Amino acid sequence: MGRWQRIGAVISVLWLIGSPLYLLVTENEPADRSYAACIEDSLTTSTRMREKGQQDEADTWELHSYDWCLRAAGYMSPVGLAHAFLEGNYHSAMLWGFLLGPIALLWLVGSLVIGKVRRAGRDLRSLE
């Protein structure tokens, strides 16, 4: 394997690893905001309960609200992303296109450019 092919293979592998990670991060940003807002509301509610003298209810509320907020936030896990890739519907086809399209484009354009440069180099040598 030539030097340029190795560089292309490394770039392809980095894209295959990095783009799903990027998808996870961007999909979970709204969930982070939702979770933070839910926890803030929950703490406000438990503070009001404590002000009314409902200490036990406030403790129970706080204990369970973390789980409720976590479920309601809608985080995407790596397993959830794998399921999204394997569902076999339009959305998964778009994900595969996003993942493999740039790699195909990289190899196509790279092969054309390197082939053209090599041919130009051979033509210049033959003129000498």
Task: Give a structural overview.
The chain has 128 residues and is mainly α. It has helices at 3-51, 55-73, 78-86, 90-127. The chain has one domain (3-127). The chain contains 4 helices and no strands. The two termini are 29 Å apart. The relative contact order is 0.11. The model has no long low-confidence stretch (mean pLDDT 87).
What is shown here, in short?
Helices cover 90% and strands 0% of the residues. The chain has helices spanning 3-51, 55-73, 78-86, 90-127. Helix 1 packs antiparallel against helix 2 (55-73) and helix 1 (3-51) runs antiparallel to helix 4 (90-127).
Question: Which SSEs are present, and which pair or pack?
Answer:
Blueprint: H1 3-51, H2 55-73, H3 78-86, H4 90-127
Question: Which properties best describe this structure?
Answer:
128 residues; mainly alpha
Number of domains in the coordinates? 1
Distance between the termini: 29 Å
Main beta-sheet strand count, sense and barrel state:
none
Q: How confident is the prediction overall: mean pLDDT?
A: 87
Number of helices: 4
Shape: rod-shaped
CA-atom Rg in angstroms = 26 Å
Roughly what fraction of the amino acids lie in strands?
under 5%
List unreliable stretches of 5+ residues.
none
Helix content: over 70%
The helix/strand class is mainly alpha
The H-and-E topology, N to C, reads as HHHH
The total beta strand count reads 0
